[in-house]
Amino acid sequence: MSNREISQGLKTALELGPVLAFFVAYLILKDRSFDIGGTAYDGFIVVTAGFVPVMVASTGLLWWLTGHLSRMQVVTVVLIVVFGGLSVWLNDERFFKMKPTLIYLIFGGVLAVGLLRGQSYLRYVMEGLVPLQDEGWMILTKRVTAFFFALALANEVVWRSMSTETWVYFKTFGLTAALFAFFMAQGGLFRRYGTGEE
C-alpha cells in the first residue's frame, strides 16, 4: 500500500484523540466502581479497557488512510495492547502505568545502540521533517536518547509515588508538554546544523 497524504488536522485527531478521550472518561468515571462478572473494577481499569480498542482502531484507521505507520506508532500500539490488556485481565492498574516507561526505554535503547555503532537511527525517522548535517544528527540523537531515559525515570517516579489522578494528568499533559518543550529548545541546533532545505 502506497503512502497517501491526509490533512494534518485529521492526523492529529487520530493520534491524540484516543488519549484525550481516555483523560475525559477517567475524569468522569474515576470515583466509580463497576461489578462485572462478580469482580469489582474501578473507573481507571474500565477506562483502560475502553482505551485499548479505541487506540487500536484509531491506529488502524490512520494506517488505512495513509498506507503507512512509523515504527514508533507500531511499538506504541503493541505495548498499549499488551500492558492495557494485562491491567484489565489482572485488574491491576500498575501494568498500564508502566507502559510509558517501557516505551521510552525501548526508544532510548534503540537510539543508544545506533550511537554505539556511530549511527543516528533518529535520522531515519525524522530526516524528512528536520534536514540536518551529519554532526547535527549525532548531537540531536544523543540529546533525544538522554531525554527518553529521563522521561522513563520521571514516569516511574510519578506513578510509584503519586496518586493515579496525578499520573493521568502527568501522562496526558506533562509528557506531551515535555516533548514539545524539548524540541522547541533545540532551535539553536536546528539553526546551526540545518542544511538550508525547507
Tags for this model:
cell membrane, cell inner membrane, two-stranded antiparallel ribbon, globular, 198 residues, 2 domains, YciB, 8 helices, mainly alpha, Inner membrane-spanning protein YciB, single chain
Describe the SSE topology.
Layout: H1 8-29, E1 33-36, E2 39-42, H2 43-66, H3 71-90, H4 94-116, H5 121-126, H6 134-161, H7 164-184, H8 187-193
Antiparallel strand pairs: 1-2
Helix pairs in contact: 1-2, 1-7, 2-3, 3-4, 4-6, 6-7, 6-8
How would you characterize this protein structure?
The mean pLDDT is 91. This protein is mainly alpha-helical and 198 residues long. The chain folds into 2 domains: 1-90; 93-198, no CATH class. A two-stranded antiparallel sheet has the order 1-2. It has 8 helices and 2 strands, in the order αββααααααα. The longest helix is centred in the last third of the chain and has 28 residues, at 134-161. Belongs to the YciB family. The chain crosses the membrane at residues 12-29, 41-65, 71-90, 102-124, 166-185. Keywords: Cell inner membrane, Cell membrane, Membrane, Transmembrane, Transmembrane helix. Plays a role in cell envelope biogenesis, maintenance of cell envelope integrity and membrane homeostasis.
Mean pLDDT: 91
How can the largest sheet be summarized? 2 strands, antiparallel
The strand line-up of the biggest sheet is 1-2
Total domain modules: 2
Number of helices: 8
Q: Compute the gyration radius: what is it? A: 19 Å
Beta-strand percentage range: under 5%
Number of strands: 2
Q: What is the 3D shape?
A: globular
**Coarse structural class:** mainly alpha
H/E element string? HEEHHHHHHH
**N- and C-termini, Cα separation:** 27 Å
Show unreliable segments.
none
Helicity range: over 70%
Transmembrane segments: 12-29, 41-65, 71-90, 102-124, 166-185
GO cellular component, one term: plasma membrane
Keywords: Cell inner membrane, Cell membrane, Membrane, Transmembrane, Transmembrane helix
Protein name: Inner membrane-spanning protein YciB
